[in-house]
Each structure stands twice: as C-alpha cells, then as structure tokens.
Amino acid sequence: xxxILIVFxxxxxxxxxxxxxxxxxxxGKARFSILKLRPKKTATIVTIITGGxxxxxxIGLLILVSEEFRQRLFVDIPFLQKTLDESKKxxxxxxxxxxxxxxxxxKKENELNKLKSxxxxxRSGNVVLKxxxxxxxxxxxxxxxxxxxxxxxxxxxDRYVQKIVIPSKKEVKNILLWRPxxxxxxxxxxxxGGSWIILVKSATNVLKGDNFVFVYPELLQNxxxxxxxxxxxxxxxxxxxxxxxxxxxxxTNLLRKTRDKIKSRGSIVNEITTRGDFIKKITxxxxxxxxxxxxxxxxxxxxxxxxxPIIVELNITKL
Length: 319
Known about the structure:
Blueprint: H1 2-29, H2 39-65, H3 67-124, E1 127-129, E2 134-141, H4 146-165, E3 176-177, H5 180-190, E4 195-202, E5 206-207, E6 213-221, E7 224-226, E8 231-237, H6 244-265, E9 272-274, H7 278-288, E10 294-300, E11 304-305, E12 310-318
Parallel strand pairs: 3-6, 9-12
Antiparallel strand pairs: 1-5, 2-4, 4-6, 7-11, 8-10, 10-12
Helix pairs in contact: 1-2
C-alpha cells in the first residue's frame, strides 16, 4: 500500500509540475498581471502556488489514505512534543544539582589548596601561631575615653604576641598588622554603648622569628552566660545506672552537654572547672540512699560572662 501511494504521488507531482510551468509560461506571454505586479513576477507567483498545491494534495492524500501517517501526525508528534517539554522540566533540577556538586568540588579544591599551603608553611619553619588562632582577649566597656582604652589593648596585644614570635628581641616594637577598616569598625561599635569582648586572631600561620603578624578582630557582646546557683543541665539516674561505671559515664555526658549549652549561649571558654570531690560525694549518697531514681545536676558556683571561666559543682538529689 505504501509503495503504491509513493508511486501515485510521484506521478501526480510529475503531471502537475509541467502544468504549473506551462501555466506560468502562458501567463508570462499573455502579459497577465496580478495586484499590479509585472507579468514575469506574476508568472513566478503562479508557479509557486502550483508547487504549494502539489504539496497540499500530497499531504492530503497521505492523511486520507495512510492510517499510519495520521497516527504519527496527530498523535505521536504532540505526544513527543509533550514528552520533550516534560524532559526539559525534569532537566532543570538535575542542572541545579550539578551546579551544587560543582560548587562543592570547587570548595573542596580550595580547602585542599589551603591545606597544601599550610603543610608547606609547617615544613618551611617553626609555626608558633596558626591561622584563626585567638592571640589575645580583652574586655572593653563603652565610655568617653574608649579610643584611649582600645589603644592600650592594641599595645598589650602587640607585646604579648611579640614574646611568642620574637622572644629573643628585647626592643619593644609593633608587629601586629591591622586593616584600618577593622580598627574603625571596632571604635564605631564600642562607642555606641555596652560591654564588649575583643578577640585578636591571627590571619595566617606565623613562623617563629617573623617580623610581622597579620591579625583581625572578632567583637562579641559581653553578656551574662550563667548565674550563681543556676542549674545549667541535669540528668535522671535510674536504678540500672547506679554502678560506678554508669555513673561516671553519665557525669561525662552531662559535663559535655553543659559545655555545649554554655557555648550556644555565647561563652568563649573551652573547658568547665569543677569544684569538690563530686565523684565521692555522689557515690556516698548512692550508698546511703537506696532510692530508685536520682537527679544529677550541674550547678554554677558564680556569675560568669562571655569570657569568664565557668565554675560548677555537681549535686545529686533523691526523687
């Protein structure tokens, strides 16, 4: 059936094409004009229309005779177009995911390059200060002489760092290098009022004997972290926990939770100081009282602010 249709279309095209050419020639010779066009252009337009007529008849016959052609034209093509549109939409999140992966790869490459740089610095000399290390901590309270107070802090930090980096040098000199914008920002913020903690941090790894240390500040509000007598964290001890090993594990976990909690409140201290022989106190209490449940508490022994040490005691009570 398909071959018959193809032969028929070839024959039909062959018959109509000479007719169109003949018609164009006749119109040209007859000097016929359409829409006030020149006869030659009119003949060309007639020939084009004839060609279009051939194409229209061919498509019409294909649609009329071939069911497969109708299926592909009216069903398959719209379906394929819809599938293509859906595929494009599905491709968008994949492209975004690819972008995220590329960003992660770039980040890891930067970290690797930084690590290589740090290793190179470590191998090239005796590193006494690490990048990001806190070098000096000071408290400052807003007052009319704030610039003078800040100046004293900068000098104190300078002297302290010099003793680490150039301990053999007796002459006092300024070795800290600050960005002027950092100094201006500190003065602007601290002049607005309140109590502040200034952390002076190293911007690079520093070798022993270096003449200069690049630093940057971190400014924190000096606020109350815990108050005296406050129960910072607590833990319930069940009967199954009342042996030395479990009690010791509970205490360790409780102190870790306490450290995490004060960190989340803004404390910059890394360790918690405990007072008293709390292990013996707790063990004696468990030996005397045979209750099924106890509450183990971490209690602050003093008011502590952002940079103050956290001093606690552990207390156990019956439930």
